[in-house]
Amino acid sequence: MGVRTGEGGERLRARDLGIVIGELPTGPRNAITDVPGVRIGHSTVWFGDGPLRPGQGPARTGVTVIVPHPGNLFREKVPAAIEVINGFGKTTGIAQVDELGSIETPIALTSTLCVGRVADALITHALRTTPEIGVTTSTVNPVVGECSDAFLNDMQGRHVHEDHLFQALASSSDGPVPEGSIGAGTGMSAFGFKGGIGTASRRVSEESVGWTVGVLVLANFGSKRQLVIDGVPVGRMLDLENIKEPERGSIMMVVATDAPLLDRGLRRIARRTAFGLARTGSMGGHGSGDIAIAFSTSASVRIPHVAPAITTNVALLSENGVRGDGSPIDELFQATIEATEEAILNALFRATTIIGRDGHVRYALPVEPVLDILARAGRV
Amino acid sequence: MGVRTGEGGERLRARDLGIVIGELPTGPRNAITDVPGVRIGHSTVWFGDGPLRPGQGPARTGVTVIVPHPGNLFREKVPAAIEVINGFGKTTGIAQVDELGSIETPIALTSTLCVGRVADALITHALRTTPEIGVTTSTVNPVVGECSDAFLNDMQGRHVHEDHLFQALASSSDGPVPEGSIGAGTGMSAFGFKGGIGTASRRVSEESVGWTVGVLVLANFGSKRQLVIDGVPVGRMLDLENIKEPERGSIMMVVATDAPLLDRGLRRIARRTAFGLARTGSMGGHGSGDIAIAFSTSASVRIPHVAPAITTNVALLSENGVRGDGSPIDELFQATIEATEEAILNALFRATTIIGRDGHVRYALPVEPVLDILARAGRV
Amino acid sequence: MGVRTGEGGERLRARDLGIVIGELPTGPRNAITDVPGVRIGHSTVWFGDGPLRPGQGPARTGVTVIVPHPGNLFREKVPAAIEVINGFGKTTGIAQVDELGSIETPIALTSTLCVGRVADALITHALRTTPEIGVTTSTVNPVVGECSDAFLNDMQGRHVHEDHLFQALASSSDGPVPEGSIGAGTGMSAFGFKGGIGTASRRVSEESVGWTVGVLVLANFGSKRQLVIDGVPVGRMLDLENIKEPERGSIMMVVATDAPLLDRGLRRIARRTAFGLARTGSMGGHGSGDIAIAFSTSASVRIPHVAPAITTNVALLSENGVRGDGSPIDELFQATIEATEEAILNALFRATTIIGRDGHVRYALPVEPVLDILARAGRV
Amino acid sequence: MGVRTGEGGERLRARDLGIVIGELPTGPRNAITDVPGVRIGHSTVWFGDGPLRPGQGPARTGVTVIVPHPGNLFREKVPAAIEVINGFGKTTGIAQVDELGSIETPIALTSTLCVGRVADALITHALRTTPEIGVTTSTVNPVVGECSDAFLNDMQGRHVHEDHLFQALASSSDGPVPEGSIGAGTGMSAFGFKGGIGTASRRVSEESVGWTVGVLVLANFGSKRQLVIDGVPVGRMLDLENIKEPERGSIMMVVATDAPLLDRGLRRIARRTAFGLARTGSMGGHGSGDIAIAFSTSASVRIPHVAPAITTNVALLSENGVRGDGSPIDELFQATIEATEEAILNALFRATTIIGRDGHVRYALPVEPVLDILARAGRV
Question: Which of A103, A147, B259, C161 has the least C-beta neighbours within 10 A?
């Protein structure tokens, strides 16, 4: 059916297939780049075939960067929070984000064992743009998240190098976001199918200020049987071999918003990603590093590295609510939950079948039977 | 339809209506009391009608107790953890549970403004059974959770007194658990309908050790439109007046298990309640105190107030997994998530319509239209 | 020696005896009330003598209140943070302060087993001043800290009642702060001597904005041998019976400042109290509930219960530093550490010998031999 | 004075100069290696002189490793906790240690910007000894702490490479620990003097089980004026140019013990390092990454990567106390505090004057005037 692939034959996004998660309107691209200033870049590392030769390949991996704003992030930091939902993960940079409530580099996502190399590359990038670091001013805190692409990729080879990060940054764009088996998502699996990068967005407070919440995920978790799509337990209804395999993966969830929140409010936002994650069937498995990072791009809460005066003026979301209405943060929570759920689905729907190390095949989600199940449940 | 109420005309539980949440088997009672030794007691406070006279009534409130084991809890503490999912709540006792990883009183749930009185009553109870407290040994840490029953109840009156707690303890039972508009649940609302007490349980590792996870909730959160039952967005599909009212409530979730876990493992369990909660449609609203308490009744991890020797032998769940299998905690996670979701539904399905202060009416969930919607979605 | 007591024969403060902690200048009263708007009130409960009759007396206890500003605290909340240094304590109100970063009642300190009653009394007070609570708006989160006065007091009797709290509030003053064996400090012990209430303050950024940090402690921890005064291990040098008794007590530390900080910055401040505490010889003993609460009275960070608009303007301390200087928060850290250490010493130096239940005597710190030791070490 | 240097002219440790911190006995080496099985290795990177050429040198840096036991750490993990006292730091590995309560690699300490490279090198090391990582089993979580050696070292060059880590591991020893300007300590400064590596130990429960607590620090914090030695404010009493420079450094503190504690108890231990740190004059400065890592080497709490059975037997410290005595953890707290304070002093007393980039000179602590001040205060 032509309606189930795009014009170029590419896999369609969940919403293009008729799956509508939640009730809030999406931004124009239904992507994290709907948040003004946010750019996404990918660099895919792919070479070799056949048997795993540890350290040699084959490589099915990469790096994805989320750039909060186009300026110098070290000099103009963004408020941020990292919420560890399940900490079987190796995200670096957490202590300083907790303490200072800000992020001062792009956020990079990559293969687990590459975190050290990518963090080092982020430092190189920061030194190039900000040569005073570690000489006349303080050091820089790279933030790198990860998932394990062990099933398809020669992880031990740690094939993501400095140039890949630079390339991801150089090619980053505020336009449509490539999804699926690309960048850090190249070798990832979700619910026993091919996973990877997905994104979505929501608009809130349209009638007043018109804020956007955008989510980008690196989806690499779950077993087939767990998969739930828009409330329908698709995983249990698909005619699948029922391998009882432990959930070994992870998910990184990055939330951007232009709503003016500082670290505490952003932590509340980050924590809500678990609600979206849960609706896709995740159990937050033991071996899953489920970690969310939220930041605000609002100019009204930007944090300068060197302040002009001993106090800084900030305009903050009125979290307690306005004149008897509920808190405006509730709509941001809803937006986060809906966009997280949809971003995960987009990772699944967009990812293509990949053959990796040792001939391991990770199949793309079979769209037709899934849509049939959803149709029978009245969901498309 | 006779099948939709019990023989005595009472409201049936979700499972009795054909709603099956998840895949794990339930315990014999599908209740927290399936965990050996756990007892539940309720005391309902109900008097007056008509206009609210603050401090005078009408009263639609109460207290519910969860007793982890039948012995002296101060002398034989249970490992425990409290996870704050959203902290707009007044649960007391958190700091010590965090520090020492144990609970030394029954857990009580009540109306928000009654926390002080009920905590004081728990102290009275501890002093009666353990007269050395505060004289020759240390003090005692009461654990009390709460939700707001302001819509139906004269909260300012704080009508739960010491005798009500004693009565709840005295009448506590390890048998079937009364649900709905009883005890602490008397005045609670969930998803715009009548809420209150619900419970459910799951069995894990049947083939080996046969552990049980039981959950009891005090459900008092959510707006009508948010309600999701077994994945079906019932709230959006019911023909309801669409009042856009802020989510103001809260939920307390208590998880008991006889699996041998200490505080860190129990915190992981407690955190999984958010996954079950999310599946019912909760957004973890700003004004919602969403708090989970987990404890283990396993004799192999019991914590004596006075130890016989400088080290204590403990048999702990092998969290990292056994011989290549995944972690046995994953099944406990699944059990927690499923039992939490079902306990919330049981609160809704079992609660009866209540008329409270100022003639406020909180209607019971309309079972027929809900079942029709679920049937159309193929879920019953 | 006349110089070692005041004109009326009362015990002098540490600084009046020549002990100068740290380097920053004190405020005019060297008390938490140097922070504009902060008021302190005490109510002492004292009756009976002789043998302990549990529940009957003798009573050597009380309540102390810290009022952050003279207005309606529920409607105009102050930013705040609670840091649990050692959590063997029963402080109530923590979850909501963590989540929302604000305090909405006066802070009360009392005897451990009275927390429930005093929290209930704070609710009564809030209801009187803010009748919409629990009727047309949300509920209120009382913050009550505690230490154990078991050595001198009939704790089981819980002799602090609602009227005592009201009296403490009604008599609260922004003037000099009575210290030692008064209010919540009546029955407390520190370092094996009589302890209780102490306070101190420091001024920072004199040349620019001139902020004040004030600390009030309820000191009830430590064994004789641990006592360190201004770096001198006085406890080891006093000619004392060397009872090896476990440290059973606790300390509550309340920090007020008019520097404009929100919850994250205030948590950093609160955490610094441990540094001052450590300098007095504390080991943060197992059985010690060591808890710090910090709040800002700055009008520029006040948090309204109902906001006039969807964003609120705030002027925040520029934590990252101004034009190459270090962070202005460093001076606030120093102020907190110095004031905490001095407040603890003031509790010791000001507290008078008390005879309590069962004829238990807790002696005041012997000033002469202590000063002699300090003089020999060149510290006075 | 000959007594103030060793036979070979090297700088003596604090205790050899007559400074005795606290009261507990030290282990035989007064070093972290007194804890059986613990090994320490250093690799120093030193080349170049003269002006800083960013990326080229001069190098004054290195890496230090703490190896918890001689076996395969991935297969036999140790219980552990990381406590962030002030989080302006870049320690990696925190989320997983928090979640699982264990460490599965040696701990490495290095220069801030080298964390990525050293983490990557730890992975390489783990892959060599445990080739199943990332192929047939899960990934590995390297733990790397850091301080900034920017004053002396070309930080931007990140001159610590994989071979340096391997060399540090290969040369690691359970014997006496080289201190001062060595390994990660090469370029570090403390209290305006040369800092670096220091260690100390304490023995507890001699009469019964005879446990040891060992601490190793990487000391790189504080301004001259803040320095306190054994309670004496030496920094204020030395005749020094009084540069008011912001505290920019950090301290890493690693605590090893053979007492049988799991993560929660070890976090309590780790938190006590702040008490020892505070006694040296630290304010926990804004820009200071003050982070403590504690682990237990006790065989009775070892955590296998693959367990033989669904439960694992553990013998835990009886934290609540034995037959009316206080908690045995109190002595471990005291040991931690004393050893931390002394380890910091050893870093200062042992470190030698270093000339680094741009001709920057960091002078060793002047021993004679310091001892004179201590003598006048009666402390040596």
Answer: C161
